[in-house]
Amino acid sequence: MTVARTIRNTAQTMKGRITEDLGRVTRNRRLQRRGRTDRVSVSLKQAVEKTKDAFGRNGSGTR
Question: Is the pTM of this model over 0.90?
Answer without folding.
Answer: no
